[in-house]
Amino acid sequence: MINVGIIGGSGYTGGELLRLLLGHPYVNIEAATSRRLAGKDVCDTHKHLRGFLDMQFEDLSPDEIKERCDVVFVAVPHGTSMNIVPQLLDGNNNVKVKVIDLSADYRLKTSVFEQVYGMKHTNPIDAVFGLVELHPDVADEMFISNPGCYPTGATLSAAPLVAAGLVDAVIFDSKSGISGAGIDPSVASHYPNMAENIQPYKLTTHRHRAEIFQELNRLDNSLTNISFTPHVIPSVRGILTTAHIFTKSTLSADEVKRIYTDFYKDKPFIRVIDGIPTLSAVRGSNFCDIGFEVDEHNRRVVVVSAIDNLVKGASGQAIQNMNLMCGFDETEGLWVAGVAP
Amino acid sequence: MINVGIIGGSGYTGGELLRLLLGHPYVNIEAATSRRLAGKDVCDTHKHLRGFLDMQFEDLSPDEIKERCDVVFVAVPHGTSMNIVPQLLDGNNNVKVKVIDLSADYRLKTSVFEQVYGMKHTNPIDAVFGLVELHPDVADEMFISNPGCYPTGATLSAAPLVAAGLVDAVIFDSKSGISGAGIDPSVASHYPNMAENIQPYKLTTHRHRAEIFQELNRLDNSLTNISFTPHVIPSVRGILTTAHIFTKSTLSADEVKRIYTDFYKDKPFIRVIDGIPTLSAVRGSNFCDIGFEVDEHNRRVVVVSAIDNLVKGASGQAIQNMNLMCGFDETEGLWVAGVAP
Amino acid sequence: MINVGIIGGSGYTGGELLRLLLGHPYVNIEAATSRRLAGKDVCDTHKHLRGFLDMQFEDLSPDEIKERCDVVFVAVPHGTSMNIVPQLLDGNNNVKVKVIDLSADYRLKTSVFEQVYGMKHTNPIDAVFGLVELHPDVADEMFISNPGCYPTGATLSAAPLVAAGLVDAVIFDSKSGISGAGIDPSVASHYPNMAENIQPYKLTTHRHRAEIFQELNRLDNSLTNISFTPHVIPSVRGILTTAHIFTKSTLSADEVKRIYTDFYKDKPFIRVIDGIPTLSAVRGSNFCDIGFEVDEHNRRVVVVSAIDNLVKGASGQAIQNMNLMCGFDETEGLWVAGVAP
Amino acid sequence: MINVGIIGGSGYTGGELLRLLLGHPYVNIEAATSRRLAGKDVCDTHKHLRGFLDMQFEDLSPDEIKERCDVVFVAVPHGTSMNIVPQLLDGNNNVKVKVIDLSADYRLKTSVFEQVYGMKHTNPIDAVFGLVELHPDVADEMFISNPGCYPTGATLSAAPLVAAGLVDAVIFDSKSGISGAGIDPSVASHYPNMAENIQPYKLTTHRHRAEIFQELNRLDNSLTNISFTPHVIPSVRGILTTAHIFTKSTLSADEVKRIYTDFYKDKPFIRVIDGIPTLSAVRGSNFCDIGFEVDEHNRRVVVVSAIDNLVKGASGQAIQNMNLMCGFDETEGLWVAGVAP
């Protein structure tokens, strides 16, 4: 049994960590912090957890939380995390805590981070990029940087073909549920703006492109023609990515199927399917469903991936990392089917 | 470990039974029948269960399925169930199987059934109405009739005040997600008809009124002024019932709160809350959330209940019945929080 | 040709006034005010009007706008309007302008207003309640108070039976699109809170009850048992009201039909239909569709009305008032079918 | 005043023709056919038109309808139209009627049609492709083939750059409201399948690709690398197309803006906007809104177009064609703003 704490427990990512950790057989939820809501019942914010959790948000310093926890999830905005993580990792007093950061602060090389996010990085530390299927070495780490939601679905959709050196260019056209924009009301999340709509944004400049580029370029450093355009759709959860992949040669559907099946063999949360993925099949679960068709016209393979942005795209993947870091089975507490319809 | 079978496994109710039973520690899913899909993979229909179930639909007679199972759920349309249940319960060959019928065939007294459904009942059998919170005696039964979705949420919202003899009249104004209409496309479930809409139907003549009447009248046989009007809303799951309850005397909020809290003491799936229930807090879970306000103008209490129609309103409640019939803890396999947001 | 101004042109009501007035053959849109957006293009806010309007929001005092206009619509929050309307109506300089106030400030008797809204009324003026179908005398007025959205649909659904002295009690259970909450993001309008949900609120205490009470009580002053419970639904536009009407005697469907048809004879925007109204049939239009069923059990008639809250429930009705006040045909600029599907 | 008939008036396209033609000052709606609904009130199907139309569907032969009409719209499925159009155009008895076919039967060269649709074309006739902005010569024709919904939005989004010879390759990633699938319930349009989802389909093989290819290739016959992938989104109306355009050289935003503005100068229904188009701004209207961003990484321009699939993508465009064919102003009856929010 391990004690787990969450820094930033009042948002959607924090709520989803709590919901999923409640089903983990080896976890005691020790603390969830929120400066603004300190002293308030966690279930006043996360009403679906009523009856499961009798705890209040606390206002804890990194030093305080690490005294009580074996694992700490950091679920705060980018730019904030870099002021918390180093203290958590600082091993004085012989306290050692494992840390999983869900912010963007440690996903990119420092120089790239500073350019993309337009801010100075005050506390650079090397971290493994916790996309477990591509980075099995997370098992040896004390600190993991959890991937962004879009990069998870996009990278997984293209990685097998890229790793095989078969790709000339990729255009990722991604469609995300609005929960990715967070728990606070905004113009984008205003129901009349979102309902019966689909809203592209940052057509060419979304920051997540840098993560996708980093990960795919790592698999094939000759591949640089990578584009990414995000949209929000009238859905709470889910990211569906349509990856338009131009290949160096013409591939048959059988070849593509074999490449994906081999690449994701023994990866329990990747389901390579016949047919086209759908968000409802992964809702609430840690799966990434992948399907595809081959275009006979243009040496294009269209690969579609579907994830739940709050689970595989955030909190579920973070727990998947925790499982490996702690020596648990990768699927512990996560082997739950999606809720459909 | 018990072997469980589902007759009619291809619809939403069947799919939800499968999803929930997968998380039950003492259940082996032995068989799911579908005449139309016999031989097909269950997960071709219920895609969210891929990776969890490696089984095909079968075309089994009642005698065949009862040979292999300890418990059988019957999830077929009304009028069909009455031709299946008697064979299942027939104890020849010393085979004894517990049966939970999710259809309407055994919920009402035979004479009422025949009037409301406009058909002859070919095989009447007495059954306990499996609304567990009002019928704890289900534990002693071999055969349970599982309540309708609307009657579950409506009856639970008013039962405490009715049982206290305080009610003059009730108008239930219920709003249901469209999954209640089933997995087959229909005019009602056609997206352009449902989106950005709310559709009342059978304003005064819905068949579920008879179940609500039966259950509330059982608690107070002087209460007959009971009205029920259903609506479908642009939601897949969930039933929210607004119960406009006219009371015999003026009640304070404190009194009402105490009456509900006492009545549902020790009922793990009823959460009497401060504030107003919301569908997202119960989505995917077996809870019934109940909140209320007292109207100072008209001796009216407005009680709101929220359930997931496919869980507490159907498959979850059926498993709750199974748990009691089999001597398991009432919450076994069902103690899971809703998926929100 | 008349010159029309809008005080408070940047919200949904203002935008809808602009959209509808663009189709009015006798109207010149002279000015739209917004303190916050003064100088900005109107079409930056109301993007659907691009190509139709080349004007900027202005920051105008009541005296300034009335110099330029024949009719002024006041579309500001309650409590603000009372500081604007008197100046508009003040006839010094021999300037006479017709005024239609869309706020709540002049809908209720002053004493009732002060109690319901919990504020002192600083500038009481008598105004006709501009529910045209019940107040044809608006034609003689210089100042009209435009009804609230819920009271429009609710009052119209019950008025014929109430006016006939046939009603014992009414429970209005209303369901509104979220645009009624305005153009600014809020917790209620946050997409993840609203999607796949239906949210009751102010179960017994919504301020619009006072308007409904005033109007129905005016038709039958013995009727006081009037309840109102509102909900928001996952829809941008539309209010559907389910009126549970308990009658003094049992009525046949034919009688009810005749009462409604007679009452609304020569009312072009009321469509008494066979069957049950649906929001999509009135979307974008000024119609109120009304249908009903008679309950044989409980001397209850269930009447359903459907309106577009932004049109018949606000801006369309305001223009309907303007038409009568200005001697135009009641339907001028408003005789447009809804947009369905 | 012209007499207009609609063959196939009971679907969404027929209903939208009726709605829009009702606002046309020079049109008398003479007839709407439906074999299945002959004799039934048109407004029983198109409920939003109640009060506007007092007519019944008729079962008319092509010869019968052309006797009574000056213009006939053919709104029937592909494969059916080819058996109707020739009779309509046949000039015996000196009856001359203008015909606009909304099916796919006459959009493509016959050989291409036969390959793409997998059927023999029984009655080939040459027709101008009625995408008015690219085919101003429709004004001289008696017979026009109205473009498909996807090809309208996709072609318009890329045409200016293609016509300038600047394009290497285009990937159209289109997202359509489900009304494009028609008025009859289907698995795709089943609310639980569509809500909170986005469903790609025919990733590489949608038939509309051939139309897009034909039209863009006509503008630059060296351009052949054209891909098209459609999706349905939880929206009733609207198609948003994200065009990923790879250009031969790097273009500045100013250059792109000038190219689009020049190309669509004097095209009243094309609005080249700053910022990103949104479906709600065009809902119910005949506009095509176009916006874009330039990608500094990959010589890519991302152009987004938004149309209402039932208006500019079908019935509105058909009336735009009718206007030109009949010598009316192009915007007659169509100069109406969208309904937002």
* Relative strand content of chain A: 15-25%
Specify the oligomeric state.
Answer: homotetramer
Order of helices and strands of chain A: EHEHHEHEHEEHEHEHEEHEEEH
* CATH level 1 name of the largest domain in chain A: Alpha Beta
The CATH superfamily of the largest domain in chain A turns out to be: Dihydrodipicolinate Reductase, domain 2
**What is the arithmetic mean of pLDDT of chain A?**
97
Overall 3D geometry of chain A?
A: globular
Main sheet of chain A? 7 strands, mixed
Briefly note the CATH topology name of the largest domain in chain A: Dihydrodipicolinate Reductase, domain 2
What would CATH call the architecture of the largest domain in chain A?
2-Layer Sandwich
Order of strands, main sheet of chain A, comes to 8-9-7-10-13-12-11
According to DSSP, the number of beta strands of chain A is 13
What report would you give on this structure?
- 4 copies of one chain form a homotetramer.
- With 341 residues, chain A is α/β, with parallel strands linked by helices.
- Chain A folds into 2 domains: 2-126, Rossmann fold, CATH 3.40.50; 149-309, Dihydrodipicolinate Reductase, domain 2 (2-Layer Sandwich), CATH 3.30.360.10.
- Helix content of chain A is 27%, strand content 21%.
- In chain A, the strands form 2 sheets. The first copy, chain A, has a 7-stranded mixed β-sheet with strand order 8-9-7-10-13-12-11. In chain A, strands 2-1-3-4-6-5 form a 6-stranded parallel β-sheet, with helices on both faces.
- In chain A, helix 1 (12-21) packs across helix 10 (311-325) and helix 6 packs parallel to helix 8 (208-219).
- The longest helix of chain A is centred in the middle third of the chain and has 15 residues, at 149-163.
- At the A-D interface, strand 7, strand 8, strand 9, strand 10 and strand 12 of A face strand 7, strand 8, strand 9, strand 10 and strand 12 of D.
